[in-house]
Amino acid sequence: LSPGAKMGCFTFIKVMMILFNLAIFLSGGTLLGVGIWVKVDGESFLNIFGALSSSILQVVNVAYLLIVIGAILLVIGFLGCYGAQKESKCLLMMFFSVVLIIFIAEVAAAVVALVFTGLAETLLTGLVTPLLKEKYGVDATFTEIWNVTMTEVHCCGLNNYTDFNNSYFYEKHHSYPRQCCNMREPCNSTLAAETGVEGCFHQILEEIRTNAGVAGGVAAGIAALEIAAMAVSMYLYCRLDEK
Fold this sequence. Notes:
By secondary structure, the protein is mainly α. It is built from ten helices and no strands. Interacts with SLC19A2. Interacts with NTRK1/TRKA.
């Protein structure tokens, strides 16, 4: 290619890099704002979005999840957009490094989730079960999220009804959540065992297996975008030496 064509190609990729990362930056700001809204006023969020808010992903604290994802996207968007606009090798390398770390973390998480399902369940149990014991029935937003999730997904706790043993809710009401007994009350250990409602982790795992094609397509699309972003940032980084 002639020097002019190379410069035109460089400029085009630079502009695309800026626009792409500007979109990421704005998306991150939006997610961060929604996450803060859910944290501050979760009940109104649930009322507005209804069934949508009962997504199986809300087994975790959706507010903190949105805040973390939003903050990460803000950082990535800023590094990519500002680094390309200023033609800063330092910022472009930081952008590449952050995206690479996220890509590696996603691959590792996928391996754990798909190959070491038992380990994933153990990790989730260690994180989520203590929250159920301490916050279910105490924190209104946390309780509402779990109630909607257990009702819509037809599950009980993370593993099963035993997640609520020695919990604040059980000590106060001497009963498990009615979802653990197919909405029958009082939900004692005998009825819960007879009903055999599965934990939300197992239900989510089954849902993922049922929609494995969609989940795999989304994951592949995200991975392709990350690889493309790393390739473009490295191209701009290397081309700056030739300018």
